[in-house]
Structures are given as C-alpha cells and as structure tokens.
Specification:
With about 150 residues, this protein is of the alpha/beta class. It has a single domain, classed as NAD(P)-binding Rossmann-like Domain (Rossmann fold, 3-Layer(aba) Sandwich), CATH 3.40.50.720. The chain has 7 helices and 7 strands; from the N terminus they run βααβββαβαβαβαα. A 5-stranded mixed beta sheet has the order 1-2-5-6-7, sandwiched between helices. Strands 3-4 form a two-stranded antiparallel ribbon. The site of NADP nicotinamide-adenine-dinucleotide phosphate has 11 residues, from helix 1.
Amino acid sequence: MINATPGDSSLARLTDLRTELTGKILIDVSNATRDADDGLPHDLCYPGSGLAEKLQAALPDTHVVKTLNTMLFMVMTAPETLATPPTVHVSGDDENAKKTVTGLLAVLGWQPAWVEDLGDISTARATEAMILVVPHILRRHGLKPFAVPLSR
Ligand SMILES: NC(=O)c1ccc[n+]([C@@H]2O[C@H](COP(=O)([O-])OP(=O)(O)OC[C@H]3O[C@@H](n4cnc5c(N)ncnc54)[C@H](OP(=O)(O)O)[C@@H]3O)[C@@H](O)[C@H]2O)c1
C-alpha cells in the first residue's frame, strides 16, 4: 500500500486502518507539513520526529518504508528525465521490506546507484525535513521537475 495522502492528517487516517495494514508493506511518500498562505509547505508537523516514524510506532505489525518524498511527483516515475543523476532515499526498519521497495523503484527507472538506503525508519525524519527547501524552489522556478540529490 502507498500513502500519498496529505501528510498532516495521514497518521490518524492510517492508524484507523491498522487491521487492514497488518503484515503489509506501507510505502510512505507523504510529507507532514503546515502550509503557508500560498498553500506551499512552510513548517514540519512533527519536529524532532517524523511522519514515517510515527506511522511505524502506530502500526507495529506493518513494515513502513519511506521513499520518494524528496522530489516532485513527476520525477518519481521518470527519474531518467533529469539532467543530473537524482537520488531516491529509502528508510525502514525491515530489510526485506526495503528490498521489495527497492525492486519496485527499479521498475520505475531508479538505477541502483541512485538509491540511498539511509537506515531505519528514524532516518526518514531527515528526508522529511528536506521538504522545507521545496517551497522556495517552486516559488523561484515554478513547477519544473527536480529531486534533492546526493552528490559524490
Ligand atoms: N505533489 C508532489 O510533488 C509530492 C512530492 C513528494 C511527496 N508528496 C506528498 O504526497 C502527498 C500527496 O501530495 P499531493 O500533491 O498528491 O496532494 P493532493 O493533490 O492534495 O492529493 C492528496 C490525495 O489524498 C487524497 N485524500 C485526501 N484526503 C483523504 C482522505 N481523508 N482519505 C483518503 N484519501 C484522501 C485526495 O483524494 P481526493 O482527490 O479524492 O480528494 C488526493 O488523491 C502529500 O503528503 C505530499 O507531501 C507530494
């Protein structure tokens, strides 16, 4: 299952689905933010924690994997269209679940070198915080595809 619902209300919504989500992988692409007056993300709902971390705590029988939340939606399924190699971050407690999700990312066109497994689900709070750069990029450049890459 994929969570792509508004992040500020995802926790309550998915906690209600605890039974249905038992034993399943939950791919969480949502960012839990409060919006500015122009509707763009302005601040984090869970500073010092994160949505994925809270989802995993609320859904202990579900394997939450955070990914794809650090790019505009059009890049998620077309990473090869960017001029510079993009990065997709992956966070999750269960190694097998992350392996399954990484396989799905490959189907979407994500090359192995572009996939950055950061570690357990608590690492997702870092990628969720990256959302704070997004409104500034959108205001300056409009809705042009971009991802937040890791350059080496
Ligand atoms: N847009 C991006 O480029 C992007 C990139 C990375 C991450 N994200 C994250 O992905 C999530 C969705 O973003 P979005 O831009 O697609 O937002 P959106 O356009 O507002 O879409 C939200 C979706 O959630 C559904 N939804 C809203 N309330 C619901 C409820 N109570 N139960 C079930 N479904 C509900 C909506 O359904 P209806 O249409 O029927 O209302 C809609 O399909 C957000 O958390 C965002 O941070 C977005």
